[in-house]
Design a protein that fits this description.
Layout: H1 4-27, E1 31-39, E2 42-50, E3 53-62, H2 75-91, E4 98-109, E5 112-118
Parallel strand pairs: 3-4
Antiparallel strand pairs: 1-2, 2-3, 4-5
Length: about 120
């Protein structure tokens, strides 16, 4: 079982990773619409848009030797994100040409951050 201190540190690391990913996406022309967006279906780490393309971004901060990429976002998590994304889309009024899911994996090692993006990471079911 994880201690309260371990959980607190993991939450802080996760939040820092989300902010770092948001900065990287903004540098590539994405506009952050939402951060830690919550609804009854779940939470989406980041929702970003660029030129009519909307992305629902799941950020996974991991140690270098941990599971990364899409493997870190299993089928149950994908379904929760997809349900939350649908709730967001139900109320979205901006121009929309496409919507997809993106996974950003963040490896943190000795104070260095390495981020990989997997765009159009999975299909909603």
């Amino acid at each position: 079982m994880r201690s309260a201190e371990h959980r607190r540190l993991a939450q802080q690391t996760g939040l820092a990773a989300e902010l770092h990913v948001a900065e990287l996406l903004q540098a590539e022309g994405w506009r952050v619409l939402e951060h830690s967006w919550r609804c009854p279906a779940g939470e989406i780490d980041l929702i970003v848009v660029r030129a009519g393309a909307l992305r629902f971004v799941e950020v996974k901060a991991r140690a270098v030797d941990a599971v990364g990429g899409l493997e870190a976002v299993g089928p149950a998590k994908q379904r929760r994100i997809a349900r939350a994304a649908q709730m967001y889309l139900d109320d979205y009024r901006g121009p929309l040409e496409e919507a997809a899911f993106m996974v950003a994996t963040v490896e943190i090692h000795d104070g260095h951050w390495r981020v990989e993006f997997l765009d159009d990471a999975f299909d909603a079911e």
